[in-house]
Design brief:
heterodimer; A: 323 residues; 13 helices; 74% helix; 3% strand; B: 458 residues; 13 strands; disordered N terminus
Chain lengths: 323, 458
């Protein structure tokens, strides 16, 4: 789910081998067409495989969302064309809340992760000794499986033997039930997410930082710019495409939030921490309502794609203005 | 650094997507037509099977899908399989261990079976699944193969709980229900009686906690999950209420009884009798709080007894624990209602060996297997003659309590039960955490249940 919007650019770069040269006559055109045909022929097996494992399930999910689906002992039977699944979804308070929660969660965690990640990257860039060690250390949270991560945070948040519980009661703050109360539960999930994925943002931003040309900094130094001005006038504008990429990755992932709340809160208290992906899962595989579940999944995917395209458009315009 | 491909590269991509889109639609069409063709083939194979499948096959290989029954060693599943293979040497049973989380277990089964998998042949599933699985064709109607005399061997109520639309889908394997566990030593020390009413339980729990004898008074399952529905049903039943009408078409929990139940549950927390952390407790958390001596009272299933008695568990309460039926509300019939839980054995409709499956199920629900389950693993047998056998009862004090309890089923007669239960536990859970009042939680739950049973809600 996170790959399609980003992957095609390297992919197409391979399948279209040469930048089209100015046409010099019919002979060239024939060659080019033959070459293109060969290219398509050679990449067809891979493309068909991709179609089978990604496009087909996506198409099937979309089809399920607009038909009457019934699960039988021998697979699904789809019949008729209907808007019922979507009308059920739009009418459900649960869906509206899940959408609100997912957007809120995405906006806050991505914003904090990008801010913190950029700060960490700036520090790492200055670091000469031990940068490798620091990066390895930072990547530990990122490299851990989220479910394991969530279990570890579960020990911290646990209301009877949790570390936070012990600390709070020792400093006389009582025993808050973090995962059982709405706002603290949401905040707890966000903290666990930020802890895990900030290093990822930091590494991407660092990669962008080390590629920035030195001459602009030299010029800024000659002009007597201070560090603050240098960052906002030189570093940040040039980093924008890198940050955009980091934001894109993170938004895609945050919007698909599932494993953290699945382990830590199972969506509770009430529906407070039930994101869209979990709602889709529950609707499909707990309630066996495959039609409305597919509607939730399809609409979520559509929202992410639209959001990312809009975001890219805005960012490209900005980059273009400065070029 | 370009993150968006230029327009020049865009065009072949568009063509590619169009091609693939067309291809996928075509594949889809091909697939759905094959899908619509298969029900007839499956029904013909199952009707072909019915001729020979009567539970008399004595050879074949079958796969049994079952989640762990106890955490103790030896594993009851392998013990039972070994004994079965001894009785039927030509039938080989391989165990497929299922997830311990019931919802994950169900999701795996649903995707496996609706995908057409031939294994597992026999699966152990929750007692609340028959309507949902029966409606979706995920289980074989066993009553087509097994005679009435077989179903009559079970304790009353169990077979009707496994019935949907006049067909029995699951063979009751072992039963479970809610019990009250209490600390005999603490009650004796403070000269308190074993509580007969919920009000009495609340005041005793608060007293023992306030005197500093325990960290928590009364622990139970209040997290946002199926177990909370079980707990709620017990208070609701004790107060004389029901959750759904008899036709499973309308919610009935927003009543005086419902309000009494919900208000009391919240008061357990506000009075200090139960910790506020109980809103995150499932069985494991409640059990460990009680078994480590932190709580005076516990509501738990049948296994709570053996867990609290096992010396190898981190238990400081061995020999100090008593068990009784759940209390009732004062002025209501005593004892209170205990929720029915437990597991049935179901057959996968795609199984190639239904006759051997039936042999296995009949043996597992026969006297030998049921006696093993009851005496060696302290589960509650489903077969009436085993349940009342004096030699079995003498080995399992929980069984002596069983006849004294009053049972209440969950409203699982509707295929929409999962949503009904979810409406109950999410709203009660947020009410317990103080986010909503008991009356508004019940109103919301009722309206969600009503739209669920009419298939108009998520």
């Amino acid at each position: 789910m996170s790959t399609p919007p980003v992957a095609p650019s390297p992919g197409t770069a391979v399948t279209v081998p040469a930048r089209p040269a100015p046409s010099r006559g019919r002979q060239d055109d024939v060659f080019r067409r033959q070459f293109a045909r060969l290219g398509w022929g050679l990449s067809a097996p891979a493309l068909i495989l991709i179609a089978a494992v990604t496009i087909f399930p996506i198409g099937y999910a979309i089809a399920m969302s607009v038909t009457n689906v019934s699960a039988t002992g021998s697979g699904f039977s789809l019949s008729g064309f209907t808007g019922h699944n979507y009308s059920v979804m739009f009418g459900a308070a649960q869906w509206r809340y899940a959408l609100f929660f997912t957007v809120l969660y995405t906006v806050i965690t991505v914003a904090v992760e990008v801010a913190l990640g950029t700060l960490i990257a700036l520090v790492l860039e200055r670091l000469t000794a031990g940068r490798g060690w620091m990066m390895a250390l930072l990547l530990i949270p990122w490299s851990m499986i989220t479910v394991i991560n969530a279990q570890l945070w579960g020990y911290i948040y646990n209301p009877t033997y949790g570390i936070l519980d012990t600390i709070f009661s020792h400093i006389g703050l009582g025993t808050p039930v973090i995962l059982g109360t709405r706002v603290p539960a949401i905040a707890a999930l966000m903290v666990a997410d930020i802890w895990k994925t900030t290093p990822f943002v930091a590494i991407i931003v660092l990669a962008g930082l080390v590629m920035l040309p030195q001459d602009l900094y030299d010029a800024a130094e000659v002009d007597g710019a201070n560090g603050w001005t240098t960052f906002w006038r030189i570093t940040f504008p040039q980093l924008r495409p890198t940050i955009a990429l980091a934001v894109l990755f993170r938004v895609l992932q945050a919007f698909g939030l599932f494993d953290l709340p699945f382990v830590l809160t199972t969506g509770g208290p009430g529906y407070s921490t039930q994101p869209l992906a979990m709602l889709a899962y529950n609707t499909m595989f707990r309630d066996l309502d495959f039609g409305p579940g597919a509607a939730v999944a399809t609409s979520t995917a559509a929202l992410v794609v639209i959001g990312c395209l809009a975001f890219l458009r805005v960012f490209r315009a900005q980059v273009g203005d400065e070029a | 650094m370009h993150i968006v491909p230029s327009g020049r590269r865009g065009r072949p991509k568009l063509a590619l997507f169009t091609t693939l889109g067309v291809a996928s639609v075509l594949t889809l069409a091909a697939c759905s037509s094959s899908g619509s063709g298969s029900p007839s083939s499956s029904s013909s194979s199952s009707s072909g099977g019915s001729a020979k499948a009567s539970g008399s096959a004595t050879s074949g290989n079958i796969t049994w899908w079952a989640s762990p029954i106890t955490t103790t060693s030896p594993d009851p599943r392998t013990v039972l399989i070994k004994a079965f293979e001894k009785a039927y040497p030509k039938i080989h049973v391989s165990l497929q261990s299922a997830p311990t989380d019931t919802d994950t277990n169900r999701a795996s089964l649903i995707t496996t079976i609706s995908g057409g998998a031939k294994t597992p042949d026999v699966y152990m599933g929750d007692v609340i699944w028959p309507a949902q699985f029966g409606k979706a064709g995920l289980a074989v109607p066993l009553s087509k193969y097994l005679p009435k005399s077989y179903w009559n061997t079970f304790a009353s109520g169990l077979v009707s709980g496994a019935t949907y639309n006049g067909q029995v889908y699951g063979a009751p394997f072992y039963e479970d229900q809610g019990f009250l566990y209490y600390r005999k030593d603490l009650l004796a020390k403070e000269h308190l009686a074993v509580p007969k009413t919920w009000e009495q339980l609340k005041s005793e729990a608060a007293e023992l906690k306030n005197k500093g004898l325990v960290k928590y008074g009364y622990v139970w399952q209040g997290a946002s999950y199926e177990g909370l529905t079980c707990n709620f049903m017990e208070y609701l039943g004790s107060a004389g209420g029901t959750a759904l009408n008899s036709g499973n078409t309308k919610a009935t929990l927003d009543s005086a009884a419902g309000n009494q139940a919900a208000t009391f549950m919240r008061s357990l927390i506000t009075s200090g009798a139960s910790p506020s952390a109980v809103t995150t407790f499932q069985e494991a958390q409640a059990m460990s709080a009680f078994a480590t001596g932190q709580a005076a009272f516990l509501r738990n299933w049948d296994y709570g007894w053996s867990y609290a008695q096992t010396a190898s568990s981190p238990s400081s309460v061995v020999g100090k624990v008593g068990v009784s039926p759940l209390p009732s509300f004062s002025g209501q019939p005593s004892p209170g209602t205990s929720n029915i839980g437990g597991w049935n054995l179901y057959i996968n409709p795609h199984s190639k060996n239904v006759a051997a499956d039936l042999t296995f199920i009949k043996w597992m629900t026969g006297t030998a297997a049921q006696t093993t389950l009851a005496t060696q693993f302290s589960e509650i047998p489903t077969v009436q003659s085993v349940r009342t056998s004096p030699s079995v009862v003498s080995k399992n004090p929980v069984l002596a309590t069983v006849p004294k309890t009053r049972l209440i089923p969950r409203p699982a007669g509707t295929p929409q039960y999962a949503k009904v239960s979810q409406a109950i536990y999410t709203n009660i859970n947020s009410m317990l955490s103080g986010s909503s009042s008991p009356s508004s939680a019940l109103k919301t739950a009722a309206s969600q249940i009503n739209s669920s049973v009419s298939s108009n809600g998520l």
